[in-house]
Amino acid sequence: MAPNNEYSRNEMMDFIDIEPLDIEICDVTLRDGEQTPGVAFSKEEKMDLASELDAIGIEVIEAGFPVVSSSEKETIKEISNMGLNAKTCCLARSIIGDVDAAIDCDVDIVSIFIALSDLHLKHKYHRSCSDVLGCSMEAVEYAKDHGLKVRFAAEDATRTPIPTLQHAFQEAEKYNVDYVSIADTIGILNPSTTKYLVEKIKEKVHTPICIHCHNDIGLATANTLAAAEAGAKQLHTTVNGIGERAGNAPLEEVLVALRVQYGIENYDTTHLNGLARKVEDYSGLTTPVNKAIVGKHAFTHESGIHVMAILEEPRTYELFSPEMVGGVRNLIVGKHTGLKALKGIIKDMGNSLEHEELCALMEKIKNCTEIKRGISRPRLEEMIDDIRSCKRDDEI
Ligand SMILES: CC(=O)SCCNC(=O)CCNC(=O)[C@H](O)C(C)(C)COP(=O)(O)OP(=O)(O)OC[C@H]1O[C@@H](n2cnc3c(N)ncnc32)[C@H](O)[C@@H]1OP(=O)(O)O
Ligand SMILES: O=C(O)CCC(=O)C(=O)O
């Protein structure tokens, strides 16, 4: 493969025995993302985010859960009628009224969920597994009869006995559901158990499998990719990884990993940073500075050894370019700056200093009291002026 300047491909993947991935993304920012405590997107915000997701090339947008409120229902309907390339989807409990609400919203797909784990059966429904599964199948049949595509989603699938899960998916398959979803509702999976579970489902079920990972121990992206390697078709994500508790698999991480690790170039990742800022703004949730891909520090460098190399070839210390994800590179001057880095940064600012002046500036920087936050460019200009005026004074 020809070298590219956008990213370093993980060439070790050539030695790993996996089938090429056959995947699509269902982004659930507007539904599970919005379930983040304290978050409520307005109609305009949801429509704007839906347009952005569509521009990236996301195949399915889960626009909401219609029975939550009448305005939620209205918003989902508007998104469904925006003329997006993406298919729209919404959530429904295993209740006919919830399916009716989905039908009213003109969505392409309804995601009908039910939990079958002992914990949920005992402490949430207070009903037997066969009873709730029966109700769920009635809702599935009703949705199919009304022309909707159906995802049958097993909530808390990862704490459900595997034979129960296989049986439920086989039952759903009898109604020609379009997807079955493995929801890792409380984020218990790891990559090995994810692969195992997807393979166990594939032994019994031929319907495309969705994987819906939560990030309670920080494994959501890894588990999502492991599921894809094992043959899951639809990968669920949220922008910035927002969602219940520790959130969901972040869209930006999954898309960049798909490109760098698996060579999937289907998505326009240049929108990712812009989209991240919008979600921060609309949700009020600030992304940590060290958040992969969209955090403020994702392309910020201070260490002298790194900056000197980046000035010559950014790929030395960047896996992918900021341009690939709509970000910008930021070179900081601070405690860890080295002479070559400083010279390069000063040159980029349109300045040049003699070697002794550069050393004097470096001395000033290293002993500067504001160093904790890095030295801003205007402050650096002031320091350069000081050095130059000292030199002029010495020459007089
Ligand atoms: C894993 C997930 O993300 S699941 C989705 C979570 N999302 C939300 O809860 C969205 C926000 N929720 C809401 O606005 C409200 O809870 C609503 C509109 C959904 C329901 O509100 P209410 O009618 O007041 O019901 P309430 O929240 O008190 O209870 C939920 C009911 O749904 C039932 N239920 C929960 N999940 C399901 C399901 N998958 N299928 C059928 N019934 C279900 C519960 O058992 C309970 O039934 P009960 O009233 O007979 O005890
Ligand atoms: O699997 C799905 O499609 C949704 C389930 C879900 O939101 C969850 O269990 O966290």
Automatic annotation (TrEMBL):
Keywords, alphabetical: Transferase
GO biological process: carboxylic acid metabolic process
Catalysis: reaction(s): acetyl-CoA + 2-oxoglutarate + H2O = (2R)-homocitrate + CoA + H(+)
InterPro entries on file: AIPM/Hcit_synth_CS (IPR002034), Aldolase_TIM (IPR013785), LeuA/HCS_post-cat (IPR054691), PYR_CT (IPR000891)
CDD domains in alphabetical order: DRE_TIM_IPMS (cd07940)
GO molecular function: homocitrate synthase activity
Ranges where the Pyruvate carboxyltransferase domain occurs: 23-273
A Pfam short name: HCS_D2
Family: Belongs to the alpha-IPM synthase/homocitrate synthase family.
Protein name stated in the entry: 2-isopropylmalate synthase
